[in-house]
Amino acid sequence: xxxxxxxxxxxxxxxxxxxxxxxxxxxxxxxxxxxxxxxxxxxxxxxxxxxxxxxxxxxxxxxxxxxxxxxxxxxxxxxxxxxxxxxxxxxxxxxxxxxxxxxxxxxxxxxxxxxxxxxxxxxxxxxxxxxxxxxxxxxxxxxxxxxxxxxxxxxxxxxxxxxxxxxxxxxxxxxxxxxxxxxxxxxxxxxxxxxxxxxxxxxxxxxxxxxxxxxxxxxxxxxxxxxxxxxxxxxxxxxxxxxxxxxxxxxxxxxxxxxxxxxxxxxxxxxxxxxxxxxxxxxxxxxxxxxxxxxxxxxxxxxxxxxxxxxxxxxxxxxxxxxxxxxxxxxxxxxxxxxxxxxxxxxxxxxxxxxxxxxxxxxxxxxxxxxxxxxxxxxxxxxxxxxxxxxxxxxxxxxxxxxxxxxxxxxxxxxxxxxxxxxxxxxxxxxxxxxxxxxxxxxxxxxxxxxxxxxxxxxxxxxxxxxxxxxxxxxxxxxxxxxxxxxxxxxxxxxxxxxxxxxxxxxxxxxxxxxxxxxxxxxxxxxxxxxxxxxxxxxxxxxxxxxxxxxxxxxxxxxxxxxxxxxxxxxxxxxxxxxxxxxxxxxxxxxxxxxxxxxxxxxxxxxxxxxxxxxxxxxxxxxxxxxxxxxxxxxxxxxxxxxxxxxxxxxxxxxxxxxxxxxxxxxxxxxxxxxxxxxxxxxxxxxxxxxxxxxxxxxxxxxxxxxxxxxxxxxxxxxxxxxxxxxxxxxxxxxxxxxxxxxxxxxxxxxxxxxxxxxxxxxxxxxxxxxxxxxxxxxxxxxxxxxxxxxxxxxxxxxxxxxxxxxxxxxxxxxxxxxxxxxxxxxxxxxxxxxxxxxxxxxxxxxxxxxxxxxxxxxxxxxxxxxxxxxxxxxxxxxxxxxxxxxxxxxxxxxxxxxxxxxxxxxxxxxxxxxxxxxxxxxxxxxxxxxxxxxxxxxxxxxxxxxxxxxxxxxxxxxxxxxxxxxxxxxxxxxxxxxxxxxxxxxxxxxxxxxxxxxxxxxxxxxxxxxxxxxxxxxxxxxxxxxxxxxxxxxxxxxxxxxxxxxxxxxxxxxxxxxxxxxxxxxxxxxxxxxxxxxxxxxxxxxxxxxxxxxxxxxxxxxxxxxxxxxxxxxxxxxxxxxxxxxxxxxxxxxxxxxxxxxxxxxxxxxx
Length: 1152
Description:
Shape: elongated
Number of strands: 18
Strand content: 5-15%
Strand order of the largest sheet: 4-1-8-7
Distance between the termini: 26 Å
Structural class: alpha+beta
Largest sheet: 4 strands, antiparallel
Low-confidence stretches: 1-19, 23-44, 194-205, 211-219, 276-305, 1100-1104, 1148-1152
Mean pLDDT: 81
Number of helices: 36
């Protein structure tokens, strides 16, 4: 127990830089004295520190989302509809006059009533449905509707024409010897009078331009067209376009023949000449003219090398051409069932009108303009802003609307490019008054791009219309980008997706820029976007500044608002990096993050510099708290920039911003110190010193203290003070405050447990166990926090990865807490001392008739019960400490029992030897308890030695005394000096020769700083050399380095020198004339190792006479233990030996 209570911190004796936090010198700043010192009452707000640490947790919570670079998955938190975009009626489609509306209505009715061709499966074929839909669109009443219908029906029917594009053919028959053909096409319109008859029972005959036909009615030559001849191919590609007027769309049909050209005369030239003939009457004369020019009746013999061969034909009724036109492959047909043909031909067919009897046509309004107005009207009717999710409308027109537009586009002969341009122009204008889905607009631009190869065919006014729409949409898009955060918030995934599509639309428009003669862009689009973003950033910041921290307010009032503004800027930069940056970089090649960061960082830095300069003379606790929080956010902004590879914070406007914040940070850390104490004191006051729950073994105050300390560590990490010198000062002060708070807490705990009376007779105190666990928990927590308080330091100034001051502080605190743990442990085990002594006494008083197991059983049962309670109440580390303390207590108690029972039987000591081994097994617990090497060390060795010696005879104890002297080593070799001797055995003379040469560095034992040394030489043990007397050298006056060179002879047999423990003992004494001689030191030399004993003596060999240097020492505990054993013996031999040694001990003093 005494040993446990007297443990002191070794680190506190070695480390002078950071003395113990328990024992500060009086008057030292921050000294806590011996009792817990109350925190300063006016530091923040007197109380329990709860409010302060709650505010601190809020500050730390802000930093939790600022670790590392932001992740888009974290930022995109909402899938709600995107914010509504601004609308401007003045930027939409032009409002039509009443006259224009009436003309447009007539145009639409005319388109429906005079439709031609076949309706597709997705189109509305019912004419009444289409007319009724138009009545709804234009809002006409029945009378107006009937009147308009009647007027349109009286109008002249339109003139129809068929546009035919002969694209290519494939897999034609080979008609030439080389395995190929030289194909060409003849095509024309068969009028209604020449339409094929319904086939009867006779063999079907198909019409052919090259074969005579008994058809009635003339076929004008202008209806026949031919393509070029494509030589030596079975897969010809023509890509030739033709236009045929249609007289009767319901009965006329398109006929096409494909021939293999074999004549020297060009059929194309012949047909061209035929087209110059006017007034041909009858099919016979027509084919006669054909035969004269090409000799092509298909019946020539094999010797005729110049006859064209038939490859196939097509007959397509005009009424079967889809109203939207078609592009398809047609399978070639034979002239008759006897013909053999194969292959397909690709045609593009479109039925259009060339003359229209409508008011708009009569006024010269082009089909392009009519379609634009009609599309705008239908779009306004179909897409209504009051409908739900109208902003996600993707242009899904109803069936009647799509059908009417398809009819009008086809009849107006609008190309695919013109239709794409019209839909974009109208939709992009409409979008600015009634928001559409940007995916739909992007699809329209992609349609334009797909047909942009036809851009050269666009008339200038249509190209200008497209350019104007691009300019208007760009202007609209740039206005949205200026208010990016309002219309496309980064937390809204829907809005972010709309932004992505908008940027793609703007980027897509750049594809068309080089093709415009009238350029719609004043500069490069990405430059315009960058300028809009910069302006938007500034406007957003100014709006935020005026809302949160207006400049006209006093500095202290502006501070809180500026903190909110800096937080908002940081969150915005996170959004820029995590969401916006990748979109702008990948789509329009703009480094939006760098642009925004540089701009906002410069603005907030300017505001912070001005405000800190204003507030520095007015520093108060409230101002310091606000400035501290502001600095944390500014530091986060700098770290955000530096965490991106390749970014250097030295180029920022915030570089060096920490300097004006230093006074505020210092003051805030002082507040933190005081509030920490208030919080710890409040936690201990309400602590019941009971475990928090079944899974933990510490109480509530330990959890509170550990949480407070972890908050301090997190705060230091966020602070990350950049100046190394200032960081060292701040970190050192904070670490010292933390250590003092830790010890303050342990002292509060000790006081609380001392004031709580425990149950009478309870050996294991649960409150003490909880206190022990609390201290251990806090020791670990404080150590971890202190290691986390490291600051930037040169590698040479680090020890163990920590700056030297911090390492010293950490080690000192750990030593103090270890001492506290040992103190509480000793207090806990002290309650078991009386019981343990009782059970050990029971063992010592047990009669020899009782078995050893029975004598030890009560002690083991008691220990088992108490250790079960301790195991349930203590954490593993503390349980090990208590086990170690109990083990030491048991060993000391047994030693005391042995000392109280002298000169007893050997069975008594055998029983305690059995007890010792039983306790070793009990505390080891098959590897679950203390390790064997720990159990068998220290006091165990002493006890085991005493037990062994008690079982030895007197002479064996004496021999052990000398063996211990031979084993003894000087702990400090130069402390008591050295003695040089030379020994050998002369076998012929049967004598031992001992030569004392000299001594050096002897201790000064006289007042003059010197000594008068002499050496006593004797042999031992006495029972081995009973007739040998001790001898001594002369006294050398006033020296610490005496030279003797004296020779001594001892007549002894060699067999005695070889016995166990035989040695020569040198005792150096200081001669005093008026008092007892003083002991200076001693040394022993075993006789078994000297020349002549260990090996035969060879003449006068100098090797056997080599001097031996012996280090002088004082007798240690293991030597004195054998002496104590002999003191308890009543035998004459033991008493005489002890008496002689005690005479020598009288001259010995305690270790200097």
